[in-house]
Amino acid sequence: MITGSIVALVTPMTPEGDIDWDALAQLVEYHIVSGTAALGVVGTTGESATLTVPEHCQVIRFAVEQAAGRIPIVAGTGANSTHEAVELTVSAAEAGVDYSLLVTPYYNKPPQEGLYRHFCQVASSVNLPIILYNVPGRTGVDLANETVLRLSEVSNIVGLKDATGDVERGATLIPQLPDTFAVFSGDDGTALELMRAGAKGNVSVTANVAAPQVAEVCRLALAGDFAGAEAVNDTLSALNESLFVQANPIPVKWAMAQVGMIGTGIRLPLIELEQAHHGAVHAALVRAGLL
Question: Which residues are catalytic?
């Protein structure tokens, strides 16, 4: 199982909203040399909600080809339709990804038994390690700890991205899980505390713009040096907060454009960061030593 900083990678776009393949290639290379443990592609931060299915699959294939085995690829393949999630996951497996990241089915609000059967059906369709993704603030459905424990018994369901921001809840769950099952934070602001409770890393938005620093926080925390991890994390605290002043990935794409990593393209209904928030994000970039 991977450990450390897993970037929740943006999908760079041109001003017209087309995928910027050259910029995407450069981002893959940036993370390879910056200590990032794995690339999480086409998740929430990758604007999976506004990519077409062919684009979704194309970004995954491109990332696999660009990485060329130098860094693991975690492909977002979740959907609110079990049938579609199976199709996306099978396609990702055929493309050669290392893991699938499956978000809870959103909008239709299935009960816990529906969630359990959904994940079991997707898992049975592939010979691929699967990481569950719980982000109730986005999906309108919460994957209960009890359901995670049931799913941890499925042989190729190997992890959970916990984006609830509830450290106490994660700290309760982690000791009950088998050693072969890893929990990752999906919330930059509380990631260090969840690692203190036993999480194996952070699926990070902040790592898009500050990959070496986030990787260092994870490295130190996983080595048990929490004082060192806190010192680095303190330089990122304002950035962790400001990158969520509007819906992700609006702020992080703006921040990356400010430091010259990507252009400003983003797809409707998302828009560029509103002027009122520029100062906060800019100041956080300065504090982190990125500007």
Answer: 133, 161
